[in-house]
Amino acid sequence: MSTGARFSIFAPAYGGSQSYELEGVSVYRFRYFWRRFETLVRDGAPTKLKRQPLYLIPAICYVILGAWQLFWLCHKIRPNLLHVHWPFPHGLMAWPASKLFTIPMVFSFHGGELLLSQRFGFVAHILRWLLPQAAGVTTNSSFTKGLVTQLHPCPLQVIPYGLTVEAKAPSPRVSGQVPTLLFVGRLDERKGVHYLLDALAILLTERNVRLRIVGSGILETELKAQVNHLALAPHVNFLGFLSKADLVNEYASCDIFVLPAIVDSKGDTEGLGIVMIEALAHGKPVVATDVGGIPDVIRSGETGCLVPEKNSRALAQAISNLLDRPAWAAQLGHQGLTDIQVRFSWPRIIALWQDIYQRVL
């Protein structure tokens, strides 16, 4: 941000990672446990705690030692504002420094902490206590905004993520090429990949199509077994995690991006769906489900197609409609590209943050 402001980042270590400076921004990594157990902050802390209850010990240390080290960092650099992402648990960590040094806090909710508040009453109580103490509150989508309002009605603003890839018009499709569907995301329940594989089986009864799956996760083995059971192996590629350059190539070469997200058995779903923004940045038509924050990104019939969750037939029909009408698919992709270049551009999002910071200070 070329605003004259100076920023520092306070974030947990991962496997003993050290503090560093990046393009003039100091990144302070706080240690909270032995190196081999400093793994809470990737692949979902709630999932790890559920599968390995002993992770509760480093989780408690995470909050206590994080609060202590943030206190001393604030004593050293005396910031004018604390911008707290994921207010549970980070609001607890920021609160002592905020109170003792009279530093206003801005909270940004991303969805995961609100799922925890629905499952655990003590988390909801903590957030209800913290929210009135924030000078500003933001969410990443209208869906997340509604969840925060249910906890504690307060003034708040929706500020989504910005574009994470360079926006570019799609390359012309090669005639006769087998249509390619793309999914990008963690392979867990809420992504709904089971339903996408069932939809692929339906599509293959009437046309040739292939599916490329980027990402990994706890359901990978189960999903591969489903592929074998449905005899989809010749049509499905599991690619695992990819480099940024390779991921860009996948977006560029696909015909349709699909996000079949669901509300899972724990009540979790997509807070926004950044991968759809990345697909739209490449001018690709998107088929997605109408859950969570997805409708904030996709305007059905204008920038993509929305279908009901957990409905493989609806997914297959929407994909088939786009493949049958390539001009319409291209139009959706073009309109989506134009839309996200405005709504998710960094100049617009930076201006929104500047406005909040100025009001708070």
TrEMBL record:
<dbReference type="InterPro" id="IPR050194">
    <property type="entry name" value="Glycosyltransferase_grp1"/>
</dbReference>
<dbReference type="Pfam" id="PF00534">
    <property type="entry name" value="Glycos_transf_1"/>
</dbReference>
<dbReference type="Pfam" id="PF13439">
    <property type="entry name" value="Glyco_transf_4"/>
</dbReference>
<keyword id="KW-0472">Membrane</keyword>
<dbReference type="InterPro" id="IPR028098">
    <property type="entry name" value="Glyco_trans_4-like_N"/>
</dbReference>
<dbReference type="InterPro" id="IPR001296">
    <property type="entry name" value="Glyco_trans_1"/>
</dbReference>
<feature type="domain" description="Glycosyl transferase family 1">
    <location>
        <begin position="175"/>
        <end position="333"/>
    </location>
</feature>
<keyword id="KW-0812">Transmembrane</keyword>
<dbReference type="GO" id="GO:0016757">
    <property type="term" value="F:glycosyltransferase activity"/>
</dbReference>
<feature type="transmembrane region" description="Helical">
    <location>
        <begin position="54"/>
        <end position="73"/>
    </location>
</feature>
<protein>
    <submittedName>
        <fullName>Glycosyltransferase family 4 protein</fullName>
    </submittedName>
</protein>
<feature type="domain" description="Glycosyltransferase subfamily 4-like N-terminal">
    <location>
        <begin position="8"/>
        <end position="164"/>
    </location>
</feature>
<keyword id="KW-1133">Transmembrane helix</keyword>
